[in-house]
Each structure stands twice: as structure tokens, then as C-alpha cells.
Amino acid sequence: MGSTSFIGTSPSVLEVSRLVGVVADRDTPVFIHGESGTGKELVARLIHERSYRRDGPFIAINAAAIPRDLMESEFFGNEKGSFTGAIGRRQGCFELAHKGVLFLDEIAEMAVTLQAKLLRTLENGRIRRLGGQEEIELDVRVLVATNSDPQGAIEENRLHADLYYRLSVFSYRYHLSGNGGRTFLSSDSFSSTNSTKSTIPGSSGSEIKPWSCYGNIRGPAT
């Protein structure tokens, strides 16, 4: 399997790579906030590949792409007969990510009731399949992302506040802005919200200087 990387040797690209290295082996959640196409999944894959979990699975799932009535089964799995069409036991994304990393994209699109169940899983390290009685203990690192403003999503009741604070042990926020045909990708907060697990070497702990690139991560370089 080929390794994931940002293309380029500029100081800005090397800085992002350094920051990924800082959090890779912390084994804490990371909340990635950025516009669509800015490479949030790429950052998550880099964290996985540079961590001690690199030989474990990397499971990526986009909450916005899953029908709400199937979300619980998709994330936590289900037992046979737990709902119409459940013809057998099925493992969810958490079980598939055991000993590895689960990347949840567009977390604010997940039903708030399901976010509460996710919060419990993060707190006790266990899941219960839909329709099941047994609690299954798992070892999974969770990385999440959104293109929404987290505080706005909390105010709109689309993001569970306690879940956000539990997930944002490290929070990485960046955005794109055009300027004369160039696109500037600025990292304006890569910081720990938990002071006991904090600090980012070589930074103030609350702000990283802006960096630029051409185009967004999905677009062609010019």
C-alpha cells in the first residue's frame, strides 16, 4: 500500500506534515474543520499512517452519505432480525476499525440521538449492535471532520456539545480563500482543548501561521 502525503517541499507543506507528526502517536481524538475539498480525509490518513496504528485498519465513512434510518446499523452494526431486511449479523464501522482508526466525515450530519450513543462509546470504549444485548469492547481511535462551523452547528442542535468537546482534544481548523487566482489555505487553530494533553511544540498552542497552496486538494494545480 502506498503512503499518503502532501505534494511539495515548501515550508508550509512541511509544517502541516510536522503537525500531523505531533498528534499521530498521541492516540487522542482529532477534530478537523475545513471546507469541502481541502483534504480533511488526507490529513486523517496521514495521522493514521504515522501512528503506531498504521498496520491496523483505516475506516472512513461520510455521515452525509448515509440515510438516517441506516446510520445506527452502519456505525454500530446489527443483529439478525433487528430491523426489516436485517437477514444476518453485521459488523458496523466501529468493529471494522478495531485496533485502527475510524474517520467520521461530516459529523454534524449524524442524528443528534446517535451522536449521544457515539459519546458513550468514546467514554467507555464499548458498543452494542442494533438489536443486541452484548457490549463489545473495542480499541479504536476516532478522527472526525466537518465543513460546518462547530459552534453554529451546536447552536442549531446539529452537533452534540458534549460530543464536540470530547472529540476536540486536538482541533485543527483551516479554510480556503481566493486571492488573484491563488488559493490560500490557512491553519488558524491547531490546539489542544485539554491542557493535560496539550502542547504543540514550536507553536503558541493556539495559532499557527497561515500557509498557501494553489487550488484546493481536489482541483488541478496551475
Fold and architecture overview:
It is a single chain. A hairpin with a 2-residue loop joins strand 7 and strand 8. The chain has a 7-stranded mixed β-sheet with strand order 2-3-6-1-7-8-9. The protein has one domain: 3-Layer(aba) Sandwich (Rossmann fold), CATH 3.40.50. The two termini are 28 Å apart. It is built from 7 helices and 9 strands. 27% of the residues lie in helices and 22% in strands. It is of the alpha/beta class and 222 residues long. The C terminus is likely disordered.
Q: Indicate the proportion of strand residues.
A: 15-25%
**How does CATH name the architecture?**
3-Layer(aba) Sandwich
User: What is the mean pLDDT?
Assistant: 76
The CATH superfamily name is: P-loop containing nucleotide triphosphate hydrolases
C-alpha-based Rg, rounded: 18 Å
In the residues, how many domains can be counted? Answer: 1
Largest sheet: 7 strands, mixed
Structural class: alpha/beta
What spatial order of strands do you see in the largest sheet? 2-3-6-1-7-8-9
Overall helicity: 25-40%
Q: Report the count of strand segments.
A: 9
Give the SSE string: HEHEHHEHEEEHHEEE
Distance between the termini: 28 Å
Provide a count of the helices.
7
Low-pLDDT windows of residues: 175-222
Oligomer: single chain
CATH class category name: Alpha Beta
